[in-house]
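anyone seen this seq b4? input:
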Amino acid sequence: MAEKSWEKRLSGEPDKLMVDFVESLSFDQRLYKYDIVGSIAHAQMLSEQKLITKEEFRQIKDGLIEISEEIAAGHFRFEKKYEDIHMAVEAALIEKTGSAGKKLHTGRSRNDQVATDVRLWMRDEIECVQSKITLLQKELVKLAENYADNIMPGYTHLQRAQPVSIGSYLLSFVERLERDFFRLKNCKILLNVSPLGSGALAGSTLPLDRKKTAELLGFSDITYNSIDAVSDRDFCAEFIFDCSLIASHLSGLAEDLILYSSSEFGFVSVDDVYCTSSSMMPQKRNLDVAELIRGKTGRVYGSLTAMLAILKGQPSGYNRDMQEDKIHIFNAADTIEACLDISRGIISNMKFNVTDIEAGLNEGFLDATAFAEYLVKKSVPFREAHGIVGTLVAKCEKEKRKLSELGLDELKQTCLAIEQDVYDNLGASNVANGYITEGAAGPKQAKRQIEYWTKQLEKR
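predicted toks r here
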């Protein structure tokens, strides 16, 4: 293997502890494809700028492609003395091509090289995560279509609040995931500029064509300040933040499913292939996988905190702290991909126990708000209507009755505006089917949204 030319300034061999401490090859080797693609583009530009010959470019390109094939086949020997994927690849190239390989680093630093590699990797990773978001959304829409007409209790403060279509409940997660999709889209737009050619800090005295390499690598533009270009990791923090919100949304879904699959709720059942049992209690059927989705959210949050801590207080220019960025973007990406995949598996293998849900649907006065709104339509001021219904709810609680079980005479004793048509507005199903506002959680609105989302997601 070639010697490390960048250490000519130093005397003696580095201590083994030092080698182990500074290397990043153990985790950044997964960037090899992007490092090689970036190097080929850089070499092509050098050739066109007559900084290397066409023959040297051919040797470099052929050598890099050969190295890429060796790595993909598992035949490449990574030696951590070369510290990172950039120098490992370059050392192998020099061994294959000699003088030509030594010219590859012309006008380039590891600082702008790694900044380019990470952007290339993240651009692809975002597309991968977006595709997994879309697949999960499609499963949620498919399940929502099956239950658009079925009603369940909606909750605030984990207390029964108002009746909602099961379809609308499921679509609420489609909406959250859609925001995640577009946050990632925005992140991709912001990161899609090329830092290559910024060098270590200040650019180069060589006639590099930065826009050419940007074009070859599919970037929309170049960065316009070399000092910022090599030190910018905003996009890393933003990517992990986006992953953190995805994790938060999946954790919320997981929490609901954990509760709803419990004996106390009994709202949903998930196929045994996504459940576990207990090593001690033979009756147990646990949705552990959802608990792990909830738990793994902490990993992603930890990566965000770590990334922000890395960026805090660094002096201008590139600093070695940034080597740690890859650990955290890789961790966030790997965790989110796994959680999206397993969430899709759960959703595609679950059902709502609608008979059991309907049996207890009218418990908890889910129709109280609609009753107050009924009075508003009878010209009763809302605050008065609120108090009237509250009084009736208290009466029903004491007598263990439902609002719909009160006779008209009893109701009129509280408010003369109440007529026989009040009963059309009581009961959870009547309420849910009576929602008229756009975006409400009733069956009619759910069906319109299902149609909308089916078309939207098919376009992707």
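The chain has a mean pLDDT of 96. The first helix runs from residue 16 to 22. kinda curious what u guys think
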